[in-house]
Amino acid sequence: MKERRRKKSSVLIGGEDHQSVSDSMAADRSRGFMREEFVTYAYILLYIALSSGQIFFNKWVLSSKEINFPYPLGLTLLHMIFSSLLCFLLTKVLKIFKVEEGMTLEIYVTSVIPIGAMFAMTLWLGNTAYLYISVSFAQMLKAIMPVAVFVLGVAAGLEMMSCRMLLIMSIISFGVLVASYGELNINWIGVVYQMGGVVGEALRLIFMEILVKRKGVKLNPISLMYYVSPCSAVCLFLPWIFLEKSKMEGNGPWNSHSLVLTLNSLCTFALNLSVFLVISHTSALTIRVAGVVKDWVVVLVSALLFADTKLTVINLFGYAIAIAGVAAYNNHKLKKEASSRVTNETPGDDSESIALVSQAKTER
Hints:
The chain is mainly alpha-helical. 79% of the residues lie in helices and 0% in strands.
């Protein structure tokens, strides 16, 4: 009888131990999940802060009322040189990140060089626009990007015209037109520069999609920066010699702002790195939603930071219409990408492709 009681008590103790272990494991899993959620949201907030801050920083550096470094070409060239050096340091010297294999001379010449050239054009023209128009209005004009990408995609055979897409493009275009109508201090030179930057970015995205769909090359953001940044720097260096070098030399020692320019370049690289972190820990949907939130942050905060920004009700109403169209476009693209992955996904396929980067790297 006593032995039976001892066995029963040992079973009860063993059951209690098992229950306590299970509770401990559940608590650990819950803490791990909360920690992972916290890290994810921290990366998203970091991306929004860096993306918005970089736009304000560039405007501050270029503005004649602030730092007064009116050389958008030189500033963009500095960004690309700085990015090239840091990418080489992180991948080849410190080996913190790994550059993905598969790059050939043929792919570099036919794809990476056009991507680098268009990226250089986008940043150069986009930064130049800040000399003529406000940050908020420049951001509103950027909302036309999906229209440019779609039209060029149809021309390149990457997109199919449909009534749904035609409606979405019409909504975006109408919203941008309304926002432009509500602009109090419109400068058409700045508008031309900004739209040129939009066309350059659309062409870059088309080249990137061709690189993925037709050549099957997939690169994470670090590898993309490693290959593209030096090419963009070369593309910017040639026009800089003819357009800005003599002005910079004739207007005195511009290197007096070396600390500010170094911090500006470091912030640009940190922004690209944050894109890598967000994509690694979230999804394409998250980066698109974060991009829309960032757009509104830039539009509203710029009105508080810069004297040349005067928002009107018509501005905001038109921009809201355009953003609604952009959201519909993003939803359509995500569904299309999801169905494509289900059809073509293979074991071991790397989901961090260059296609995801294409939506995030437009932030300047």
